Amino acid sequence: MKQIQLAGFLFLAIALISCGTTKKTGTTMTKNEEAQKQLEHFPKEKKGYKRYVILLPAKGAEEADLKVELMPGKVMPTDCNTRSLNGKIAEKDLQGWGYTYYEFSSNGTVVSTMMACPDSKKTERFVGARTEQIRYNSKLPVVVFVPDGYELKYRIWNAGGTSDAAVK
Questions:
Q1: 115 touches 15 (CB < 8 A)
Q2: φ and ψ at 5, to 5 degrees?
Q3: Which range has the worst mean pLDDT, 43-52, 104-113, 156-165?
Q4: Which has the higher per-residue pLDDT, 76 or 23?
Q5: What total of structural domains would you count in the chain?
Q6: Residue 108 located in a structural domain
Q7: Helix H or strand E segment including 71
Q8: What Pfam family does this protein match (any one) (predicted)?
Q9: What digits encode the pLDDT tens for the residues 112-161?
Q10: b/e 136-164 (16+ beta carbons within 10 angstroms → b)
Q11: CATH assignment of the domain containing 103
Q12: How far apart are CA 122 and CA 6, in angstroms?
């Protein structure tokens, strides 16, 4: 009797292991795979630009409360002064598809405070340009073209609960 139970247990274990290691043959795609497929429609790299692609994880109904902040900039030597890079992010339409991609442009000039720094030691820091907040959408990739020599960072913003305004 114990041998039959042991054999049954082994058979069940092998069946479960084999089910766990088989490949999916279905045609359903995850949101990230859909976004990856949509990437084919966006322009490839442009001369003098790098193409940054952000694939956002699916968040369901929570996506309505989320924003993506695009933060272009450049790593450069800085002192104690606060600096900001001149530049802007332009929204571009992908003709025929209705998708949006973004392009950062800058003339490279930097605005800085003029404080006297006691130690004139320079450190390499990311100096950002004006940021842009866009809608969180996990169904499409976020594509941003940034000139060579610049880079792109991003962060996700989450709106808190709503509050009622006071009536006076």
A1: no
A2: -65, -40
A3: 156-165
A4: 76
A5: 1
A6: yes
A7: strand 66-78
A8: Ecotin
A9: 999 988 887 899 999 999 999 999 999 899 999 999 999 999 999 998 87
A10: bebebbbbbbbbeebebebeeeeeeeeee
A11: 2.60.40.550
A12: 71
